[in-house]
Every structure is written in structure tokens, then in C-alpha cells.
Amino acid sequence: MEWIVDRQSNKPLYQQVFDFIEQKISYGEFPPGTLLPSERKLAERLNVNRMTIVHVYDKLHSVGLVERKRGSGTRVSTHKWGVLSKGFTNWRRYVEGSTFLPTYPLIKRIREAAKQLGNGYDLASGELSSDLFPSQLLQSSLVDESFPNDLSYEHPQGHLGLRETLSAYVKTHYNIKTTSSSILITSGAQQALYLITQCLLSPGDAVAIESPSYCYSLPLFQSAGLRIFGLPVGPNGINPQDIEDLYHKHQIRMVFLNPTYQNPTGTVLTDTRRKEVIEIAERLGIPIVEDDPFGLLSFKEEKHSPIKSFDHNGNVLYIGSLSKVVASSLRIGWLIGPQSVISRLADARQQMDFGLSIFPQLIANKFLQSADYTTHRKALTHELLDRRNAMISALHEILGDKVNFIAPNGGLHIWCKINRKISDEKLVEEGIKNNILFMPGSVYGFPDGYVRFTYARLEKKHIKDAVLQFSDILSHI
């Protein structure tokens, strides 16, 4: 519930909460059958006394707006929709019957808390903080930009100028040789994944993804009806032989990898293993989907060649994005693959929205062509390294042997193992109560007792205080 009580109002707190829920029900936002939060949880979320919520629920029940049953909680009435006697659509049946699954409750809980965090510590959101955005550079790069006279629908694959710029960009930075006709511009990496799962796979197909992986936090795989099998991630990434084993055991049809500064572990798949992945994929005829959002965020001079750079037969679909390097709100990503695949996915995307807005594409094109982009990227990696070092130092100093972690050499995250049994849900709730957010390992398909910290979200001066806060809640659970 994205709402807070007004403590300056003359209206009693219980009446404010009652009016809020009554309005949600009467407007149809809480359809019949909707399960309301427990008294304790709602009291915690609204920061009111539990007896206030008991009073509210009792009053809602007395006027017939909700039904209460011991052991089943409090639900919006299905027999009498409060004082509304007219017929109504049972939206709950549609919502719950949809094949596209909702965001996992724990992730949704963290995201809702992030909106109300205020001066707390956000180590959960997997993106850059606003002070790292190149806002001024983007502004200056647009001063002389002229927009086209023709603002009709763009090419289904995206703005040609941006695709040509990206063709040169991936060759320079990644040694990927491609042409504009083999590139599809997307509104971020997640849209590329959505198109692949919806258009190239069928319900019941088996796919392999890393374990742990951010892919487990995306319901789009389950929504597509795919069977998911894990590839354990070690210090050097996955073991390519595991791909072959899964192929023979489960007939996997596609492999999804994030080989460079993997999310959430921060590990890097070695070049030797990357070449093995290509060899196995070519021999078995299995497509590889390579998601590479962090490839240019290296803290060392060494570059990690994408798997795609070793691909000479079109076995790899390569996903890139500006979200982690420029700004998440720019919503510019790209997909590189065989022309027939790109054409099919472009057609599918066009059926959904007739293409992307031209304006973010023009901004991205201009920025990538300018010297400002290189200036920004160098400054960004330098700042991220400082923040990573600050977090490593704080973790060692404050938590010591309470956690284990491997310092990443790039990317945005540190993956920590807590060296005792602990409930992820309880840890997250305590964090929310104490104004510190982080992502638990369970949302990445891993057991309780792991957390991902995003050091890119906090200024360096606040990182030690955030770790102190985490240590405090850890010691009280």
C-alpha cells in the first residue's frame, strides 16, 4: 500500500486508514476476494499501533466491506461489496488467472520500501545513483542536436543512425563484428529477454540459466512456461560441461549467461571457458543468450571479450544496454544476432508498440559518438572503484568473519554469504524497519543466508554507516 497517514490532520488515524481502504474497495482497486495485509504487517507498514488496524478491520467488517475468518485473514467481501448493490466484474479471477506472473512478493516489498526510504540506505536497487548520471554531459551533447522533420514511425529495428553507431561501438570495445541490419534497439535489456522468451521459445521448453542469477528474479521465464535448470556459478563462472550434461538430461533448448561481473556474484567467466561454451553450443546446436550490462565497468585495464566475440556461426544472441553505464531511465538496449532472428523479434516488438520513441535513441546516438561518453565512463569506473573499496573496507572492519565475499573487479555489486543460519524474509523486514535495503539471495534462486549489496547506490561517505546499520540488525536477529 503506497500511502502514509497524515499525522498533522485532525482526523483520527483509524478513520484515515478506514477511509483509504474503503475508497480502494469502492473504486475497484481492491476487488472482491482481495486478501488484505495482516493487522501486524499493515500496522508496521503504516507505522501505527496494531490496535488501530484492529479497529479499522472491525469497522470494515461491520459495514460488510470485508469478510474475516480465523486462519484465512481479512478479505474484501465477495457476497456483498459493501454498500454497492450493483453487479461487478470479478477482476481478481482475471488477475490471478493471468499467465504473466506478478513480481515476487519479497522484491515488490523491497521496491515499495525504496519509494519511502527517505534518508535511509538503499543497497538493493541494481542501478547507478543519480549523482553518477552524466546529466550535464547529456545536456551539452544535445545543444546542437537537430531533430528530424519526419517524426513518423521509425524502422522496426530502431533508428538507423544509432544502429550504425552501435555497430562501430561494439567492434571498438568488444571486438564484435556486426552490421546495422543485425541489431535491434530495445527499451533496455529486459525487453530483449522478454522478446526472446516469448518469440523464440515455447511453453514447456527447457532452458539453462546460472545459479544464482538475476534471471530468477524475473517472472518472465516462468510466465513463458519455461522449465528452468541451473548452472552453478563458481569463482571462475559456470562449468561449460554442465551445459552438455543438462542438454543430455533435459534437452535444453537455450542457455542464458551473464559472464562478465555476473549479477549477483560479480564473477567473471574465464576466456578458456567462454571458448568452451561456444564449442559446446556449436556442437549441440544450442543458442546462447549473452547479457552483458557490465562489460565496460572494469576496475582493471584488462578487457573481457564477450562470448559473442568468439562466435563465428551466429550461435550467440548478444544483449547490451546503457542502463548500467549511463542511466537506467534512458531505456536504451540492443540485441545482436542473425538477421532472420532480429527481423522476427523486430516484427513481434512492432506488434506490441510500433517501435521505440525516437528521442532517447537520438540522445544515445549523439552521446555515444561524443568524447563526453569516454570521459563519463572513465570517471564512472573510478568512482565505482572508490565505492567498492569503501564497502570492502567496511565489511572487513565491521562484519569481519560474520560474512564471506569475493571482491569483484568490476560491476556494481558485492555478493556476501552470512556465516550463520538466518531467514531472508526476517532479515529483509528488519532492514526495512531500520531504513536499510538490500537484496536477499533467495530472489536469485539461492538459499537463505546470502545478500547482494549494490555499492553504486550510495555516496562513498555513507557506505560505512550503511554497513554499520546492517551489522546492527544482523546482531539482533
From TrEMBL:
<dbReference type="GO" id="GO:0003700">
    <property type="term" value="F:DNA-binding transcription factor activity"/>
</dbReference>
<dbReference type="InterPro" id="IPR036388">
    <property type="entry name" value="WH-like_DNA-bd_sf"/>
</dbReference>
<dbReference type="GO" id="GO:0030170">
    <property type="term" value="F:pyridoxal phosphate binding"/>
</dbReference>
<dbReference type="InterPro" id="IPR015422">
    <property type="entry name" value="PyrdxlP-dep_Trfase_small"/>
</dbReference>
<dbReference type="Pfam" id="PF00392">
    <property type="entry name" value="GntR"/>
</dbReference>
<comment type="similarity">
    <text>In the C-terminal section; belongs to the class-I pyridoxal-phosphate-dependent aminotransferase family.</text>
</comment>
<dbReference type="InterPro" id="IPR000524">
    <property type="entry name" value="Tscrpt_reg_HTH_GntR"/>
</dbReference>
<keyword id="KW-0238">DNA-binding</keyword>
<keyword id="KW-0032">Aminotransferase</keyword>
<keyword id="KW-0808">Transferase</keyword>
<dbReference type="InterPro" id="IPR015421">
    <property type="entry name" value="PyrdxlP-dep_Trfase_major"/>
</dbReference>
<keyword id="KW-0663">Pyridoxal phosphate</keyword>
<dbReference type="InterPro" id="IPR004839">
    <property type="entry name" value="Aminotransferase_I/II_large"/>
</dbReference>
<keyword id="KW-0804">Transcription</keyword>
<dbReference type="GO" id="GO:0003677">
    <property type="term" value="F:DNA binding"/>
</dbReference>
<dbReference type="GO" id="GO:0008483">
    <property type="term" value="F:transaminase activity"/>
</dbReference>
<protein>
    <submittedName>
        <fullName>GntR family transcriptional regulator</fullName>
    </submittedName>
</protein>
<dbReference type="InterPro" id="IPR051446">
    <property type="entry name" value="HTH_trans_reg/aminotransferase"/>
</dbReference>
<dbReference type="InterPro" id="IPR036390">
    <property type="entry name" value="WH_DNA-bd_sf"/>
</dbReference>
<feature type="domain" description="HTH gntR-type">
    <location>
        <begin position="11"/>
        <end position="79"/>
    </location>
</feature>
<keyword id="KW-0805">Transcription regulation</keyword>
<dbReference type="Pfam" id="PF00155">
    <property type="entry name" value="Aminotran_1_2"/>
</dbReference>
<dbReference type="InterPro" id="IPR015424">
    <property type="entry name" value="PyrdxlP-dep_Trfase"/>
</dbReference>
